[in-house]
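=== RUN LOG ===
request id: a7f3
mode: sequence -> structure
chains: 1
length: 175
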Amino acid sequence: MKRIILILTVAAVSFTALTGCGKTRNNSTDYSGTNADTQNKVEQNSSSTEISEGVPMTLKNCIVTYRGSTLATDWSKKDAIILSFDFQNTSNDKAMFSTSVGVSLYQDGIELEPAMVSNSSVYDSGSAHTNILSGTVLPVQRAYVLVNTTSPIQFEIGEWISFGGSQKYTGVINF
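=== RESULT ===
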């Protein structure tokens, strides 16, 4: 039994490590690591619950509040967007954002890949992987490589792993 758990754990870690890999995109805009606001607007998608900036979203074991987004560049000078959230653990055990909440972004119908933003004055990459105790609130961020800086971004927030019937929230970020 321990061997099976070890194999599953190694498989999960390998999968997580490979999620940052993928095809490259050629984006020419360079923000030089600046913190240019997207002046975004979050709109309602009629098929699910609306995401509104500053309004808490209740999931099974946590509450997530969307705080806005910022444009940046990743380590290879590709355009990126950084989403900011407050993550509150409502479970009876410790939890972290990265294994509690699933965030998916789409631009021009293409799912956006995670970005590696090295500018620590703009992006805190570690907070999403920090365990917090029940009742604690932690600001977290997620970064994604953009297809372009003009098309709207559709995004979904829900449980990280769900077997159906769980609450999903959707919204649109316009530039």
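=== NOTES ===
The chain has one domain: 29-173.
Residues 103 and 157 are 5 Å apart (CA to CA).
=== END ===
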